[in-house]
Amino acid sequence: METDTLDDITIDLRIAWRLKALRAERGWSLDDLARRSSVSRATLSRLENAEVSPTANALGKLCAAYGLTMSRLMHMVEDGCAPLVRRVAQPVWIDPETGFRRRSVSPPAQTLAGEALECELEGNTRIAYDDTPRPGLEHHLVLLDGRLDVTVDGQTHSLKPGDCLRYQLFGPSAFATPDDCGARYMLFMV
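Given the sequence above, the corresponding structure tokens read:
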């Protein structure tokens, strides 16, 4: 197993600080954000104080409330932006609830529109997002290994290695793996 460049505590603290700053920038109370995101006030407080690690589900809801992609949020908590991003310097985030692993291969940048992620889901895992952070966000998902079902616009697509699913996201989406097999995929967003 590889060693990540940012340990879990450091990234969780950076996420907590950024979430608190985003809410403050908008002048929202915890109650305001709870209404906008459907994340409980108590959970928001615990996230902002780094008492718990954020899950993909919670971050997805918060990003939708703030109008950000999850990658854009992660970019806000990561250091700098260089043209060459060596694998050892690519930030990795792991969802403590599902084990979902997300490597920011090509992090978002101020002057570049696209970004690339390498993602891994264990077998028998499902992650659902209630909304898109930005309507019409373009996705290109290439399955590298395993099997993956992706649901977009109410339609489920079953992917095998080498398959590419291209779509624009306007609402809920879900990613699921079968009981006996995980998935590793690249996700390109523009």
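The helical segments are 8-26, 30-37, 41-48, 56-66, 70-77. Try to locate this feature in the token string yourself.
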